[in-house]
């Protein structure tokens, strides 16, 4: 409604001018009141039209922003619920682009495309109607501008659409390159590969420049130039016809004025509509990508919220195969993990240790066999219930670039006493005392100001804050300094008996005192038992591993 009124007021301006010119000026009537009245009406109508346009823009923007808010919320929630294998196979930058750029393209569709196209189409129709009412013959001369402009728009779409797609593709490549280079900057610098990457970047940059120039050339040629030329030809035709009819009389010169003004305004909406079609194209590509993402099934979630009483974990002939993999990563794992026990898991790299922890944490689902917590399938548990009972410390803990306190809490609530207990249990106190602002020290991006071992202790304190029944720890590396190693061992010793500990270890010293050590190779359990029992088997794998490590560390001390 506002749109129609605003357009009517907009179009009325030249009409009022025509009334004044033909009714008073040409007649030689130079009294003040008609000028004041019609001039005031002219200014008023244009002012109200501007107000109307402002209200429309506000309205469309609100619709757009509301749509984007809901959509972004939905896409992000969906992304967080996608199964692990989807995240493993999708580059981070691509997921980020889905949630930010693609949803933004949809916003543009509402704000910039639909609003502009609708406003301009209505304006176009309004001008044509006003022309027809004023002078049908002249309107019929001006009207062909619309179909001719349609052809120009079609040509523009055909030629510039491809170039615009190329610009966007190159921009995505460029973003990925920048992401990759910045993420791996230390490696690039250490390997002296910065120049190599710079040249690669230069190549895509040049291609993007050329593609961009192509779009500028096409739009420069077809948009303003072609449409202005056609408008000028039509203007000449109008002058010709008007001249033939009113030659020398000067009659209806106001009509000519109104037509020239309207004609000048017809090409603007046409150019706007043409330009906005790119946004439409972008939004439809983004929309297709978003729909494809939203169509991907979320990881199934259980609903069992019953309390976990004993926290006994049992695995019966568990098999697991990674999505799309040809063979099983874990095969025939059978384990009984009683509450409060300390289990160590060792094995060569790639043997499936981290995968086993992912299954226990409910991050991946077993392919075959049974995995239960208190005799209830782990897969049936609601994520909140399972996460409250089982906490994990991954190999590469997630550290945000905020303070240590925020990193420990990770959005949850805990009082000072709980925080202090978790910090003490994880042996994090010494580190906090060393930091300039203690718990309120910012940790820098991805926690790079902390060592690998310290990041794991932080993740352990974070996990302990939730007071879990079972703690899964995937030891980051064999090569932490002896002070950190000592702190980690002390932390495990402190937790022992209070919490079930399942620890994947690269340093055998970490799990030396475990109740049971499980040796895995190629996804199968080779042997299990206590440290002494396993060492008592001279031809056992653990025996060999232990003596091999002992020799290596003895050599490194020589
Ligand atoms: N998403 C995946 N898709 C396919 N295979 C995978 C995937 N993730 C891991 N794997 C494979 O599964 C096997 C076990 O990996 P896992 O990370 O569990 O080993 P690991 O014993 O923890 O090794 P490390 O000691 O180096 O941490 C490896 O061969 C690995 O290549």
Mean pLDDT: 84
Would you give the CATH topology of the largest domain? Rossmann fold
The level-1 CATH class of the largest domain: Alpha Beta
Strand elements, count: 10
The major pleated sheet works out as: 6 strands, mixed
Any idea what the radius of gyration is? Answer: 36 Å
Low-confidence stretches: none
- Proper CATH architecture of the largest domain: 3-Layer(aba) Sandwich
- H/E series, N to C? HHHHHHHHHEEEHEEHEHHHHEHEHEEHH
Query: How far is it from the N-terminal to the C-terminal residue, by CA?
Result: 88 Å
* Biggest sheet, spatial arrangement of strands: 6-7-8-3-9-10
The portion of residues assigned to helices is 55-70%
Please report which band the strand proportion falls in: under 5%, 5-15%, 15-25%, 25-35%, 35-45% or over 45%. 5-15%
Summed up, the helix count is 19
Q: Tell me the CATH superfamily of the largest domain.
A: P-loop containing nucleotide triphosphate hydrolases
Summarize it.
Helices cover 65% and strands 10% of the residues. The chain is built from 19 helices and ten strands. It has helices spanning 2-25, 32-81, 84-89, 92-134, 136-142, 145-183, 185-190, 194-246, 253-295, 353-360, 383-389, 404-409, 416-425, 429-434, 452-465, 482-495, 508-511, 531-535, 541-557; strands spanning 313-320, 330-337, 342-346, 368-373, 376-377, 390-393, 470-474, 500-504, 516-521, 524-529.
Question: What's the structural blueprint in terms of helices and strands?
Answer:
Elements: H1 2-25, H2 32-81, H3 84-89, H4 92-134, H5 136-142, H6 145-183, H7 185-190, H8 194-246, H9 253-295, E1 313-320, E2 330-337, E3 342-346, H10 353-360, E4 368-373, E5 376-377, H11 383-389, E6 390-393, H12 404-409, H13 416-425, H14 429-434, H15 452-465, E7 470-474, H16 482-495, E8 500-504, H17 508-511, E9 516-521, E10 524-529, H18 531-535, H19 541-557
This protein binds adenosine-5'-triphosphate.
Domain ABC transporter: 313-547
Membrane topology: Multi-pass membrane protein
Protein name: ATP-binding cassette domain-containing protein
